[in-house]
Design a protein that fits this description.
The chain is an alpha/beta fold. The chain contains 13 helices and 5 strands. It folds into 2 domains: 138 residues, no CATH class; 178 residues, P-loop containing nucleotide triphosphate hydrolases (Rossmann fold). The protein is 64% helix and 8% strand.
Length: 324
């Protein structure tokens, strides 16, 4: 949990209210959170403030043993504290964003509430605390996992990728630009997605990327590279299948190709994957974990590997008409 966010201050204000006149209870709990943050920085090899580390060390070695409230209630608090720390260590090694990694803020707080306010206090305050921690968990996910953008020439399986990557904490749009009244609305639309981890797979995004990239903020870019002539032939066949003439392709295709090349110049450090390699499980494992930060679901991949997902041809035609 980020100790400097408004949500953290809101959380501490609620804990202070729960503790009431038990000021030493609040002070002890605050020190627990500070120690947990220091530990988290050590594990993540983050920058640590030496002064803050000294304050935490002093609290653990000299203040806790003289904290009357903790001393009176240590038999109730210590087992819960041990369980919370064990849950945090396990979650940090497997799924850092799992709800169990926030037990220190919920389960230890629940025990404190019981000790300070009784069962009535637990029933009153714990729904608020759990709701706060779910908000914090989702905000942490959004901070730790910037949006990802997957682009490729049309007929590069962007629709399939969007469907495969969407699930749980992740929502990958497909051609989000189509939902925007103006292309300049794209960043706000993307960042307003309710899911904490968000992305978009869109072959037309390169047309507007240069004007949008600063407004999106930090983000990841992945290119799906397909041989241009093969992509053009596949796109032409799709248009012919829905009764469109070859001239329809010629209206927009050169601009799409040029924009795709330009976006690759603007993003030299982006990940690049060959279109043909999207059938390879290890390639998809790497792409998934890079984009979402989530563990790769092999069973889901095997299901999707047999599934053909494609954009509706009418939508593709409208996209081409929009970029004449």
């Amino acid at each position: 949990m980020n100790l400097k966010t408004p949500l953290h201050h809101e959380y501490l204000d609620l804990i202070r209210e729960i503790c009431g006149k038990e000021e030493t209870a609040f002070r002890w709990f605050q020190q627990v959170l500070e120690a947990a943050l220091l530990w988290d920085h050590l594990v993540d090899e983050d920058h640590m403030d030496i002064a803050a580390a000294e304050v935490t060390l002093t609290a653990l070695t000299t203040e806790w043993i003289h904290n009357d409230w903790y001393y009176r209630n240590r038999n109730s608090l210590t087992p819960v504290l041990v369980n919370c720390l064990s849950a945090w260590k396990y979650a940090n090694a497997t799924t850092p964003t799992a709800a169990k990694s926030y037990d220190l803020y919920t389960e230890l707080a629940c025990t404190m509430t019981l000790l300070c306010r009784g069962q009535a206090g637990v029933e009153k305050y714990m729904p608020q605390i759990r709701a706060m921690m779910e908000r914090e968990r989702r905000e942490d996910l959004r901070r730790d996992h910037p949006p990802f953008l997957i682009v490729g020439l049309p007929r590069s399986r962007t629709a399939w990728l969007a469907a495969f990557l969407t699930g749980g904490e992740v929502h990958c749009h497909h051609e989000l630009l189509r939902q925007c009244k103006q292309w300049i609305d794209y960043p706000q639309k993307l960042l307003a997605t309710p899911a904490p981890i968000v992305g978009d797979a869109d072959p037309t995004l390169p047309l507007f990327y240069e004007g949008l990239r600063e407004q999106i903020g930090p983000h990841k870019v992945v290119f799906i590279e397909r041989e241009e002539k093969a992509a053009e032939a596949a796109h032409l066949k799709m248009l012919q299948d829905v009764g469109q003439e070859a001239e329809q392709l010629q209206l927009g295709w050169p601009r799409v190709v040029q924009a795709f090349r330009r976006m690759k110049e603007l993003c030299p450090d982006a990940r690049r994957y060959d279109y043909e390699d999207l059938d390879d499980m290890e390639t998809m494992r790497e792409l998934t974990e890079h984009c979402t930060g989530m563990a790769f679901d092999e069973a889901r991949w095997r299901l999707f590997d047999e599934l053909k997902v494609t954009a509706l041809p009418a939508k593709v035609v409208r996209n081409l008409e929009a970029i004449k």
